[in-house]
């Protein structure tokens, strides 16, 4: 029996329901074809029974986890994160991280599971030795680095399957909850500083290219066309975080021709997890 058996059985229940949104990514090491990571993202909409089953599975399995985070949502304790680890026969570590997100505005529940094979986390290997749990607890820096790497893995998934959203995050861009670019219903949405006007632009995308280099850095390029706009994007992300550089070229054809080339910085999230204000006026 695996340490996270109940949560894995819950995932199987979600697989049986054709109305549950699910993304599965199986990554392999290019040189050896051996497993590298296995990622499952599940979004539940109006599925209270599956949400309750998830909470029960989490409560049953968390006693086997070496790291657990809970939080209170609407007066109810709700899972936030749990991490499991297993030492394989060849002494490598298989690590499984479950992250849970509950959107109080939409009542949607999202679970992301990231399983990493052949972990090189030396601190994790020490933690698995029961006699070292107290003396070898991860430092704050290691915890931050680990969270950044998990965010990077999620960003890889949503960038590759065109389900990402980006919120600007740099000192040069004043905060505005209307600023957003990302994919919704397979269309590119541009708002605020990304659109260069007050409307919500819905655009078609072509020539979408996703590339990962040997260091794990990612580049995404594509062209877009809207009712009164055309343009292109170059998005680059270094391994180890979900922070990206965005170069946008946008041309406006109405009421008069305007050309902009803009550089932003921001964070990549699943588009359905981005907290922004949709603009009513849509083009």
Describe the structure.
With 283 residues, this protein is an alpha+beta fold. Helix content is 19%, strand content 45%. The strands form two sheets. An eight-stranded antiparallel β-barrel has the order 7-8-9-10-11-12-13-14. Strand 12 and strand 13 form a beta hairpin. The protein is globular and about 65 Å long. The termini are far apart.
The radius of gyration over CA amounts to 21 Å
SS class: alpha+beta
State the helix count: 4
Q: How far do the termini sit from each other?
A: 54 Å
Residues in β-strands, percent: 35-45%
Give the strand order of the largest sheet, numbering strands 1, 2, ... along the chain. Answer: 7-8-9-10-11-12-13-14
Number of strands: 14
Number of domains: 2
Fraction of residues in H or I helices: 10-25%
Low-confidence stretches: 119-138
pLDDT average, as an integer?
Answer: 81
Question: What does the largest sheet look like?
Answer: 8 strands, antiparallel, barrel
Could you spell the SSE succession in H and E letters? HEEHEEEEHHEEEEEEEE
Shape verdict = globular
